[in-house]
Amino acid sequence: MNILIVKFGALGDVLRTTPVLSALRKRHPGCRITWITDPGSAEALSDHPLIDRLSVWGVDASELLTSQSFDVAVNLDKDDGALDAVMSARAASRVGFGRDAAGALCALDANSDYALRLGQDDELKFRTNKKTYQQICFEQLGLHFAGEEYVFEPSDKDRQEAREHLRGLGVSRDRLRIGLNTGSGSRFAGKRLPEGTLVDLGDRLQRQLNAQVLLLGGADEIERNRSIASKFRQAPVNTGAHPIRRFAAIVGECDAIVSGDTTAMHIALAVRTPVVAYFGSTCAVEIDLYGRGRKVVSDLPCAPCYKKTCPIDDKEKCMKEITADKLFSELKGLLDDAGRLPRS
């Protein structure tokens, strides 16, 4: 069976879609899977053990779609490029999201009606829905989600380079290592804690748990992490910016991380690092932490909102009201549950 999957960014969404690969291969032994994604997500899917061919949207994908036939084309993305890709595919059947005769977004099959309505009905998405993202996209494929894990691993080389990098920064494997992911991307507001909250949390981790605090982020967080580090009483470890797989290996070296609903949270789930995840603008119920995390969710009546810019006077109040005390309490409980809390 020849299967096409279309799933562009954001990168976190791409990572949390990878569980479908295991289920598809179990349902269709010997199938050949092609995945079309955007340039920003290609690095994370390159050389993937369950993807036979990875194509980046553009000239390469256009040539692929005109030269190859598929038994089924699956689109799990509402991006215009993704809709164009699935509708232009030479496929015996199509499932997921597509375009109707008038060119408007539509569900290509009955299994995708619910997923489509989630993007159109705020009451359903924000209040009523109890399904995780994995449950929803598995249902679009006619599959049952049974806890299939993310399929994304840093290489042995990435892991070795991460260990050497952290060793060079003075990180000891004999002490508790807690990563604080400080970034959020720019797609939605309400996903990034104030610097003061991160500093307060880091100080408590250092003082009360004798933890090494690792500041995590990408190129967009370089200046922010410098600013945060300068406010600590005892300097944290600023890990810098890295390619995605080496970043994943650094996350894998942590005993736990604290993150918003971001790529770092999904990477932690992929490499099985316990995570305390906090939520303001996005729906916590859609996130499956696989029993390895705890959620801290804003109780403001305007959350979740999925706004790119916070519209209220007290900007991103949902993030300001998530306190260092609450995060510390949840993190300490998570570490205790995972058997990673130092015993006195």
How many separate domains?
Answer: 2
CATH topology of the largest domain: Rossmann fold
- What's the count of strands? 12
Main sheet overview: 6 strands, mixed
Gyration radius, to the nearest Å? 21 Å
Number of H/I helices: 15
Textual characterization of the structure:
By secondary structure, this protein is α/β, with parallel strands linked by helices. The protein has helices spanning 11-17, 19-27, 39-45, 59-67, 80-88, 113-118, 122-128, 133-140, 156-168, 195-209, 222-230, 244-252, 263-270, 317-320, 324-337, and strands at residues 2-6, 32-37, 53-56, 69-75, 90-99, 105-107, 177-181, 212-216, 237-238, 256-260, 275-279, 293-297. The protein is built from 15 helices and 12 strands. The protein has a 6-stranded mixed β-sheet with strand order 3-2-1-4-5-6. Strands 9-8-7-10-11-12 form a 6-stranded parallel β-sheet, with helices on both faces. The longest helix has 15 residues, at 195-209. It is globular and about 60 Å long. The model has no long low-confidence stretch (mean pLDDT 96).
Give a topology summary.
Layout: E1 2-6, H1 11-17, H2 19-27, E2 32-37, H3 39-45, E3 53-56, H4 59-67, E4 69-75, H5 80-88, E5 90-99, E6 105-107, H6 113-118, H7 122-128, H8 133-140, H9 156-168, E7 177-181, H10 195-209, E8 212-216, H11 222-230, E9 237-238, H12 244-252, E10 256-260, H13 263-270, E11 275-279, E12 293-297, H14 317-320, H15 324-337
Parallel strand pairs: 1-2, 1-4, 2-3, 4-5, 7-8, 7-10, 8-9, 10-11, 11-12
Antiparallel strand pairs: 5-6
